[in-house]
Amino acid sequence: MHNTTSSPVWKRKIHEIIYEADTPAGKWFDVILLVLIVISLILVMLESIPGLGEKYAFEFITAEWIVTIFFSIEYILRIISINKPTKYIFSFYGIIDFLSTIPLYLTFFFGGFSALLAVRSLRLLRVFRILKITRYIGEADKLSRAIKASGPKIAVFLFAVMVVSIIFGTLMYLVEGPEHGFDSIPKSIYWCIVTLTTVGFGDIAPETPLGQFLATLIMIMGYGIIAVPTGIVSAEYAQDLKKNNETNRSKESNYRHVNTQVCQNCLAKKHQDAAQFCHKCGYPLHD
Amino acid sequence: MHNTTSSPVWKRKIHEIIYEADTPAGKWFDVILLVLIVISLILVMLESIPGLGEKYAFEFITAEWIVTIFFSIEYILRIISINKPTKYIFSFYGIIDFLSTIPLYLTFFFGGFSALLAVRSLRLLRVFRILKITRYIGEADKLSRAIKASGPKIAVFLFAVMVVSIIFGTLMYLVEGPEHGFDSIPKSIYWCIVTLTTVGFGDIAPETPLGQFLATLIMIMGYGIIAVPTGIVSAEYAQDLKKNNETNRSKESNYRHVNTQVCQNCLAKKHQDAAQFCHKCGYPLHD
Amino acid sequence: MHNTTSSPVWKRKIHEIIYEADTPAGKWFDVILLVLIVISLILVMLESIPGLGEKYAFEFITAEWIVTIFFSIEYILRIISINKPTKYIFSFYGIIDFLSTIPLYLTFFFGGFSALLAVRSLRLLRVFRILKITRYIGEADKLSRAIKASGPKIAVFLFAVMVVSIIFGTLMYLVEGPEHGFDSIPKSIYWCIVTLTTVGFGDIAPETPLGQFLATLIMIMGYGIIAVPTGIVSAEYAQDLKKNNETNRSKESNYRHVNTQVCQNCLAKKHQDAAQFCHKCGYPLHD
Amino acid sequence: MHNTTSSPVWKRKIHEIIYEADTPAGKWFDVILLVLIVISLILVMLESIPGLGEKYAFEFITAEWIVTIFFSIEYILRIISINKPTKYIFSFYGIIDFLSTIPLYLTFFFGGFSALLAVRSLRLLRVFRILKITRYIGEADKLSRAIKASGPKIAVFLFAVMVVSIIFGTLMYLVEGPEHGFDSIPKSIYWCIVTLTTVGFGDIAPETPLGQFLATLIMIMGYGIIAVPTGIVSAEYAQDLKKNNETNRSKESNYRHVNTQVCQNCLAKKHQDAAQFCHKCGYPLHD
């Protein structure tokens, strides 16, 4: 137990509302933020529709300023409510928050770049932070564990896909040639991946019998290949499920990291439910 | 055991024929209903074929009236044969029955809306009620259980798909732009989902090298992603299968809800095979 | 042990060569037959290529006559070498053999129907009879068992696919209408299945925003749905694999039906390796 | 322990650098080679882009000569640094190395064949030799084992796919005919595989109602069929995973072939970590 002087009450309150979700105020804050993010994303999308952007230019810019100002306030509050602001500023979400707030100011001072405004789509990623509070945490965890466990296998597999695409792409370029849409080797490789993944746009399609025969080979390979990652994830996931069942029966499984407690000092997460001090820096936690 | 006065014999008979399927009359009723639904669906489809609808207008309208009158009579009988008609009227199937019977009357009195007539396609859903009697109940049950069990996982997964689509959709809009068919961000997102799900219509296709490179990334991701829900359902289903095997060996599994008994009073289902009274309201059941 | 008079030696020899594959002559017969079938299939295909059919008309007709005469002789030998010819004539393969031999005679006597000649493609099915002798019997068996075991589940599933297609097909017809290629409800349903199965030809594609939104729903459903049959077959197959492993360890598994012995009297198969008499009609078997 | 006279030190050194990867020099050699291969592949691709090849003809030819000369030197060193050069020359990688080095010399002496230059894409295969040193060996091994184990099943399955394609291809040819793009039976079969594998280019699409109905059948079959190989690989892989877990617990699993030691005499691999002599020819190994 460290002997640190705790931060003032107002700072603690803000920290609790913004970073955690176990008080009514904290929950409301998250819901409002979620609604604002969704609204702002819909605005970005609607603005891109031809005709609409120009017609309602004033409405769009007004709504955008309201959202941006709210996000700016939130960003500042996030910085001042923790003890080591740099911890937040240079964290993944800190950068996302900054990038999704700044574009409007930049276009205001330096003129409008549409590309810059599209950066606002990154706001979507902020949704993930909020969704941490839901009951889906456990599931998302399991899923990402299954994917991680099969990572190297999938890498090997994707590498094989690349090799097949490059070799067959070159072959198709030689067989079909620019007169049937296979303009260059990179474009042939693009077509090969389109075919191997069973997407099949049809913007380029083989026209010579030999090209169609090669295409047939690629498709059947793609058909067989699709089985591999599925089989891997499936088996991996089944094992995870089994292990989980076994662990659940044992005693150690009673403890799960599903509270939203965040240390005010170092932003560490996954504290035990009854924890009174941060398990990483020893700073006192408040419920 | 409640002490209720049982309903008159004719009411009981109609209830047995319409709602249940363990008497010859009940089975015949179901078969005729099934045939009528299928015929009426085929009529709706044929009517929509250009040229055919106008040419045989009289035949179509006549056949439609015959089907509609039969369905109207069935609807009325369903209402009068149970003790609490509102239980049926506001149930899922009650509403479906009403919606799939009323359009013709409305177009007769208020003039024809083709959109209204298409509502008749909802009759298809009535098929499900009849198919309850088949041996597929058990299988459908198992399937829906497996899907339900993997519900949250699939939700997490679909959410991830949405996020990928929105981010890559915005990117493709910036890279390809309206001149290659990526008119707006929503349309780009639509294209992104078309690609990620490996459908690949080809109505929109990237034409710049960078756009094609991004498309390649999306496709390979879609290829890897398709493995996840498959793996989940597969593992979940395997576990269900295993559990079922274990249960089947134990004694409690001797009882299965596969009879078609329906309480005349409250429409409750899944009565035990030897049940004499409704397990929900105590009303007497008759075989 | 029945006391039947065995058939003459020449009949026995022919039976052994044509129906079985455990003598050198029998194996050679099968190989020649296989080659002839493949050649004749290639001929049918080449003949259909525009220009080629007319140019080499004489060569094609000559080759076709040679193949047909060989098949005719084989057909007659099959009939005379067994005791009850009707057993063969009305069996599945008997009908296939007849249908794939007769077209040329019919076109010779009654003039050429190209549709009739395409019936010769059925010869392909004869390949299956010959492939019985390979080591793939066991695997094909396992596969078909896994598919059969998941039959009802897949039926339930396909029914669900049909329902989704009909409902969304009707919706798309109302939303997009004939001006965007959705000419009639059946065509809309066709498009819906094309999309749901992730094939996506792109010959018809939604153009209105609402239609594209509905298409997105269909695709994501198709994406999730594809997981179901895969999961089922996978789990079913895994169980089969496990059961097999357990059985293999026990004693009863020492016996497998992989010889090609066929009873000359009743065409029964799957005799035990050391069997001397048919297990179905008691007729003597000869090695 | 054989009593062989060891080769001179310079030869040993070169062998160690080129064939192995456990010394710093050996690792650097592999990295440089990998970079050169990747660069040369990118050159081949860029050269094929219309306009680019002609514009920077001089730069491309210069870069190509540099790469080719490096590869030539490497090829010669590989030959002289082992005791039995023919072992390398006629090995798989020996032939690949030769084929991917020679084209430039041939075009230099005998004039340019573009097809010949595309052979340089084979350099890609050389990447595999280098990647042997990575931690992915184990995973690739497991994967290829799972695929091998399900080989016969997948063969049976692919054969079934072929049969379905030929029969439905012939049917579609008869139903749709050359006027809707189904020019010949081989092209119809090509279309059938495009559809069955859910690729769906859309360059050919059925237009008659009957053709569209048949296409629907093919697609639903493809949808169901895709489940089979996935299920097989999945189950097979799950078993492999299980077996591995069991083996890992036992003692024999402590030994793994992941070092890059290669015998200088006979190019044998997979030596034990502490091995002093080749397990195949007895020639001394040096660390």
Automatic annotation (TrEMBL), chains A, B, C, D:
The keyword Hydrolase does not apply. InterPro entries: Ion_trans_dom, VG_K_chnl, Volt_channel_dom_sf. Residues 27-240 form the Ion transport domain. Gene3D superfamilies: 1.10.287.70, Voltage-gated potassium channels. Chain C. Its main location: membrane. The chain crosses the membrane at residues 28-46, 58-80, 92-119, 154-175, 213-233. It is a multi-pass membrane protein. It is found in: Membrane. Keywords: Ion channel, Ion transport, Membrane, Potassium, Potassium channel, Potassium transport, Transmembrane, Transmembrane helix, Transport, Voltage-gated channel. This is Ion transporter. It comes from Nonlabens mediterrranea.
